[in-house]
Amino acid sequence: MSSPRQNSPTSKDEQLASYRLDNRGKVMTTDQGIPVQDTDNSLKAGARGPTLLEDFHLREKIMRFDHERIPERVVHARGSGAHGYFQVYESLAELTCAEFLADPSVRTPVFVRFSTVQGSRGSADTVRDVRGFATKFYTGQGNFDLVGNNMPVFFIQDGIKFPDFVHALKPEPYHEMPQAASAHDSFWDFVSLAPESMHHVIWLMSDRALPRSFAMMQGFGVHTFRFINAQGTSTFVKFHWKPVLGTHSLVWDEAQKVAGKDPDFNRRDLWDSIEAGNFPEFELGVQLIDEADADRFGFDLLDVTKIIPEEEVPVRPIGRMVLNRNPDNFFAETEQVAFCVQNVVPGIGFTDDPMLQARLFSYLDTQLTRLGGPNFAQIPINRPVAPMHNHQQDGFHADPIPARQANYHPNSISDGSPEPAGDAGYVHYPEIVQGPKIRKRPESFADHYSQATMFWNSMSDWEKRHIVAAYRFELGKVERKHIRQRVVEHLTQIDHGLAVAVAEGIGVQAPAKVGENHDRRSPALSQANMPPDSIKGRKVAILVADGVDAASVTPLVDALRAQHAVPELLAAADGAVTAADGSTLPVDRAITTMASVLYDAVVVPDGVTAAEALRADGYAVHFVAEAYKHAKPLGFVGAGAQLWTAAHLPTGGTADAGVVTAEGDGLGSQFIDAFITTIAGHRFNERPVDAIAA
Ligand code: HDD
C-alpha cells in the first residue's frame, strides 16, 4: 500500500509496482504455488504422534524462516529509507552533460537511506554518531548514487585506513561493547594516533551528531567530484543538501534518554512525517571551483578532512528533493538497496581523492556478501529505470532470460547488439596522470588542525559548552589515562582553552599552550546562525487532567495543526478528560507511555483542578522540569503555571528564555503566536539549567 498523500507516481514507482505482492483475498500456497491445507499443524502420524518428513509445507516454511537474515551492512547497518523525487531549478548544461540536471521539467525518482554508522541494525537512532545520507537518483541515463553524510569531512584521508578506523570505532572485539558508541578506548586510541581525524572528531563532539530529525540535518557529498560538460570541460564540485526545515539537534542528555524511550525516534519521525503529508524536503546546492583555481585555498581539495568555507565559495542552490512515499517493505527496499559510489552518470566524474578511489571498490564489493551474489542490481529497488543491456550473465539469482542471442561482443548472431554507445556513453574524464608508484601522503594533506580550530572558533558559546561536555563524556569513558592525555595534547593544537576545559573534566594534566589560535571562522558552520524555521513536524505535549480549561487547549491545538505541528494531549490515563465546562477532550496518550524527551515543546493549560492534579503527579512535574532542562519551549496558561513552581524552575533573565505565559482568561492569539514563534526557535540553550534535578 502506498502512502495516502503521494504525488503522481514516478517512473520508479511504476517499475516497483509491478513487483508488489498483494496477499489480500488470496489463497495461501507454498513457494511452488501449491494450495496449503493447514499452516498451524504439522503432518503427524496420529494427533499425538511423530511429525512426518513428508510434510513439504513444514520443511519449506521452516527452511525459509531459517534463512531470513542477511549480513547487516559492515557500517551504516541501522537505517531508514524513503522514496521521492528530485527536480533541478534550471538547466546546468553549461556545467554538466548529466541529463537529469539539464531539464527543470524532469522529476527524477530517488530513494534515500539515512543511517547511523557505528551501531548494529537494531541499535538506537539517537546515539552520538555521524549520519549517513545516501541518495539513489534513478535517472534516464542510469543510476547516480550520492553516498554522503551529515558532516562534510571524514576521519581519515586514505581509504586504506578505513578497516582500521572502523575496527577501532565498532564495539571492542573481546566483549562486543559498547554498542553504537564512540565513547571507548579503541576509538580514542585510534583517533589520537591519527591526527588527521581531529577535524571530523570535533564535528562528532558537536550537536551535529545528534540530529532532531533526518529532515532537519544537512547532507554532504564530502568528496570533491567533477562536473563535465558536453565540451569535455571539467569543474570541481562539492555537493550539499540543505534541509528546508532547518538544521536542528537534540541535546546529549535528551538523546541518551530517547535511546531508551523510543529507540526508533528518527525512523518514526521520518515515517510519521511522510504518512502525515509533511514531506521532508532538501535543497541540493553545489560549490563550484575551476580546476585552475584549485590551489588557491591553502589546503588540498582532494583531502576529505577539509571543507571549503561557504563564505569563500558560496553554495549555489540547484534543485529540490522531496521525500513523499514510505517504502512498502523494509527488507525489500531499505535493507536491500545497494548504494555504490561508483554509480555515476555521464557528466559526473571522480577526482584522485584517495578516499573516493578506495570507496569505488568497497561498495561494489560489499554487496556480494551482503546480498548474496553479483546480481544485486536486479533486485527491484536497485534496478535502474534506464534500460539495461549487456553480456554480463548467470550467477546466483539471475532474473532475466536472455532469449536465444549472442552473449559476447563483437557478434554477428544478434546483429552485433548490444553495441557500446561510444562518446554518447559514459566517458571518463581524460585527466592526465603521471608519477612514480609510491605509498606516500602529499605534503598538501599535512595540516590536521587549522580547520578544526576554525570549526571551534565558529561556534556560539552554548555550542562550545556542548562540545566540551561531549569530549568530557566520551573521554570519561576511556579507561586508559594515557589515551585521555594524548587526546588533550591534540586539542591544545586546536585551541588551548578547549584543551584545558576538557582536561579539567577528565582528570589529566592540562597541556601546555602551543602557538596562537588563528581566529579564522566560518559563520555558516554554527547552528546558532541558522534562522528559526517553520514548526512543521514539531511535537507538542499538552498536559491535561479533569477540570482543564478547554478554551486554553482547543484553539492552540487547531493553530498548531494548521502549521503542520503535531500536538498531543497527555493525561494520567488514556481515554478522555472532562474539561471544566463539562466538555470532553480526547486524550492522545497516557503520560506514562511517553516522556518529555519525545516532544519538542510542552504546554500546561489553565484549569485549577487540572493543575492541582498535575502538580501532585511526579511524572507530570518531572516532565516539565526535564523539558526545561533540555532547553525546550514551555507554555503555561493561568493555573498551569503551578507546574512551573512545582518543578522548581528558576525565573528572571535568561531563565525565562523560551517560556511563554498567559493569564488565565482564555487563550489570546498573542499567546498562540508567541508560542509558535518560540517553537520555531527550537531550543533555548542560554538557560541556567545545571541545578535542575531532571
Ligand atoms: Fe562508506 C556504507 C558514507 C567512506 C565503505 N558509507 C556507507 C553508507 C554511507 C557511507 C552513507 C550507507 C549507505 C546505505 O545507506 O546503504 N562512507 C561514507 C562517506 C565516506 C565513507 C561519506 C567518506 C567520505 N566507506 C568509506 C570508505 C570505505 C567505505 C573509505 C571503504 C574503503 N561504506 C563502505 C561500505 C558500506 C558503506 C563497507 C557498508 C554497506 C555498504 O557500503 O553498502 O562499503
TrEMBL record:
Keywords: Heme, Hydrogen peroxide, Iron, Metal-binding, Oxidoreductase, Peroxidase. Gene3D superfamilies: 1.20.1370.20, 3.40.50.880, Catalase core domain (2.40.180.10). SUPFAM superfamilies: Class I glutamine amidotransferase-like, Heme-dependent catalase-like. The keyword Oxidoreductase applies. Coiled coil: none annotated. Residues 1-46, 389-421 are annotated as: Disordered. Heme binds at residues 73, 113, 162, 359, 363, 370. Residues 1-10 have a biased composition (Polar residues). GO terms for biological process: hydrogen peroxide catabolic process; response to oxidative stress. Pfam families: Catalase, Catalase-rel, Catalase_C. Its EC number is 1.11.1.6. The active site is at 76, 149. Its cofactor is heme. GO terms for cellular component: cytosol. Residues 29-417 form the Catalase core domain. The keyword Transmembrane helix does not apply. It catalyses: 2 H2O2 = O2 + 2 H2O. PANTHER family: CATALASE, CATALASE-B. Decomposes hydrogen peroxide into water and oxygen; serves to protect cells from the toxic effects of hydrogen peroxide. Belongs to the catalase family. HPII subfamily. This is Catalase.
